[in-house]
């Protein structure tokens, strides 16, 4: 069932006020008792009524907070990053060998009602812009160019683009070194002043400043991962699994800040670690936290992570172990404490599988985990304490789902099926968490990543 797009009935300021108040009133009896146990009956009922009203607003405005980013009068574009050339200097352990069927960055117009994508063009790139990120203003797009090689160190590159609000087309601003080999992930600091890069083959992460015009500057910091490489057999591998991909050297796979931008976290699949850094947002440098990292089960291979909207829980997906791990996150100290490990696969599955993407729904009620080879998305409900329970598993209608993403309304999920050369579209049931295939297949060669941009009102 489609959910109508929420009208713009309030400002972001009011929404934030409502959110904070609703959070403080989720246990009104306890709050009132603790604050003033001699409160009058009339005052109690008045405040309780206001609490109920605000919690209704909470449900309206926060159940699908992305909805404020798009209305039916606005034009939404989807940008798909692809593998557009084969990987070079392939390691003996490399199992993911995309032939390079993409053309670069493909872009599409998105239908608000159906979720269907219509081809609008592409920016030709032969360097595999495999990961994309868009700034908060939807005016700039950045890509990690995974198969590019520049300079004596044969480093990868990152590109900056401006987005034409008239038609969504891209204009290249500049391209700079990523600070390592095989950049596979890019993300932005909440301030919009820095870009973070994870270099998979180089086993390093870098910080790049973003200049006033959106162009990228030279790296202000580069950190090289080091430590003992994990075993080739994952601790939590499914029965009969031969999944082995990255335990041969260091492999930085993802980097992103915490919600406040105070700390930066990155995973190294080969080391089975999540590193935590204090971030100096003046100098653009990373300082090891105390402790500097936390270990995952040997061989499981952490790949991606996603914070819950409350900022207190982090979910990490393990590529070779086919697991999701729940961590409690201390935002003041930047520390992680593991609390639950659950399989990303249906009960009883046996054989090989490589996990890929993990996302938390915008309302925080569900977690979605990608399974390559099993070619599915595991669906989990989030309990009141953050723990997960598997409630479904949806076939992606394609081969090797490398990543997926929600559109700006949260009503649709788009899955990039790398080996099937297509993107498939699903309706999201916000009550059950379920995914319903829309019947839409969009052909894209070796799709790797999809992001969405609001380019403004129709003429």
TrEMBL record:
Keywords: Carbohydrate metabolism, Glucose metabolism, Hydrolase
EC main group: hydrolase
Gene Ontology, cellular component aspect: cytosol
GO biological process, one term: glucose metabolic process
Alphabetized GO MF terms: 6-phosphogluconolactonase activity
UniProt xrefs under SUPFAM superfamilies: C-terminal (heme d1) domain of cytochrome cd1-nitrite reductase
Entry keyword annotation includes Hydrolase: yes
One Pfam family, short name: Lactonase
Keyword check for Hydrolase: yes
E.C. numbers: 3.1.1.31
Family: Belongs to the cycloisomerase 2 family.
Protein name: 6-phosphogluconolactonase
